[in-house]
Design brief:
Elements lengths: L1 H15 L3 H13 L3 H13 L7 H13 L3 H13 L7 H13 L3 H13 L7 H17 L7 H13 L7 H13 L3 H13 L7 H12 L4 H13 L7 H12 L4 H13 L7 H13 L3 H13 L8 H12 L4 H13 L7 H13 L3 H13 L7 H13 L6 H8 L4 H13 L11
Length: about 450
């Protein structure tokens, strides 16, 4: 017996080291001798294709050997095979049988999947009360079984169901328990969720130490959202002591994974020498690389730098216009307004009223009041666009609704050229216009 145990431990150690051939040969011999652990491990190896070719029926055969002799983990995995129809015909009744046997042995995975069958009503009638009972037992079992890492994604889903009241009673505390279990089993998405919940006090007591702990755990596994969250928290001094060096460290890790937001943030830090040695060229290069990959904020930052100029970069309207135009094409309303004014004034390009009208119209549709006002004047004067007093009247009035201060004489100058019917149409447009529709639809 001791010899079999020793052999099993040798096989298990080889398996953990990734030496699947040695593990397989050990388990194969021991399985033939009736070692339940070896039979279970062979079932896993055939399931995953480790050393051997994936073979679901063979996996089921070995899992069944161990399950029939009471091996709880084998019972859970065999139940999963029946539930999913892998290596056997899908059979929810058979799946429940094996989940039940494992659950009654106190196996938390068995209790979890038995609860899920009651939640979904697969093979049994839906029964939320029984589901919650088995979930509570599973939760206690997971706390006892430290280090167990089988179904973290399922644990996370249970947390989501408690949080949203989906098939389970809505309960933020229960959600937090299940998310914590999932995170403790290595679910990175849930680590990030916990970081956010503890940071915002949403579904958890506000606790910035806990928030940073979970963000760090996820970040250490390369989760980009957590890398960004940590970088931003340390940069802004939000909930933690401001630390530009620490911020730069987390942003750099996200940059290494190709994240454009982090690249923009770190680029800006190089421009200002925050947390890193000031290197203007490096900062500009990082911003330009992000901007070329359509990072809108980088395009805007570069546009601003060239528009206004500074001690390191001379004012250059042509370069500013290039970057602003890229951001404008991505639908940034205030940038579209600036671009329209640049064409109107001939800054960075030959004065072009037609091009100005195009960009001012795009900004006006996005309820940029000053763009609406300027566009109204262009319609009234026929600058780069066909003169149209109805449109002029409507756009200027719409700008007033957005808070632009307009002298009454402007409206009166349009009305002096309009019929009563045209004025009525313009007022109707002002009252009824929706930003995503053309003014002509309301005429």
């Amino acid at each position: 017996m001791n010899k079999n145990i020793d052999g099993y431990l040798v096989g298990l150690e080889a398996f953990m080291d990734g030496n699947f051939e040695v593990a397989y040969n050990k388990f194969k011999y021991l399985a033939s001798e009736g070692n339940l652990g070896a039979q279970f491990m062979l079932g896993q190896m055939y399931l995953r294709g480790q050393f051997v070719k994936k073979d679901f029926p063979e996996s089921v055969r070995y899992l069944e050997m161990a399950a029939e002799k009471g091996h709880a983990d084998a019972q859970v995995h065999l139940g999963r095979m029946y539930a999913l129809g892998k290596g056997v015909s899908e059979n929810n009744i058979e799946a429940i049988k094996w989940f039940q046997q494992a659950a009654e042995q106190g196996n938390p995975d068995g209790q979890l999947f038995l609860a899920i069958t009651y939640l979904l009503g697969k093979g049994v009638s839906e029964d939320c009360v029984k589901a919650v009972k088995w979930l509570h037992l599973a939760e206690k079992g997971y706390h006892r079984a430290t280090g167990q890492k089988n179904f973290s994604d399922v644990l996370a889903k249970i947390g989501d169901m408690f949080s949203g009241g989906d098939r389970l009673p809505q309960d933020k505390n229960e959600a937090l328990k299940w998310w914590t279990l999932a995170a403790e089993q290595g679910d990175v998405r849930t680590m990030t969720k916990l970081g956010r919940n503890f940071s915002n006090g949403d579904g958890a007591p506000q606790d910035f130490v806990e928030a940073v702990k979970w963000y760090r755990l996820a970040a250490n596994q390369g989760h980009i959202g957590s890398l960004l969250s940590l970088g931003t928290m340390y940069y802004n001094g939000e909930k933690v002591q401001q630390d530009f060096v620490e911020a730069a460290k987390w942003f750099q890790l996200a940059v290494d994974k190709g994240n454009l937001t982090a690249q923009r943030s770190l680029g800006h830090m190089y421009l200002e020498g925050k947390g890193v040695s000031k290197n203007y060229e490096t900062g500009m290069r990082m911003l330009q690389a992000a901007a070329e990959k359509e990072d809108t904020d980088s395009q805007i930052i570069l546009g601003n730098i060239h528009y206004y100029g500074n001690s390191d970069t001379p004012q250059d309207y042509a370069k500013a216009l290039r970057w602003y135009k890229m951001a404008a094409k991505q639908g940034v309303g205030w940038v579209q307004h600036v671009l329209g004014l640049m064409y109107l004034e001939g800054k960075g390009a030959t004065q072009d009223y037609g091009e100005a009208a195009i960009w001012l119209l795009e900004a006006a549709k996005r309820r940029i009041g000053n763009a609406q006002y300027r566009l109204g004047l262009m319609y009234g004067q026929g600058e780069g666009i066909k003169q149209d007093y109805v449109h002029a009247h409507a756009w200027v009035n719409l700008s007033i609704k957005e808070g632009v201060q307009v002298d009454r004489s402007v409206i009166e100058s349009f009305e002096s050229q309009m019929t009563h019917e045209q004025i009525a149409v313009a007022k109707k447009i002002t009252t009824s216009w929706l930003p995503w529709t053309s003014l002509d639809e309301w005429r």
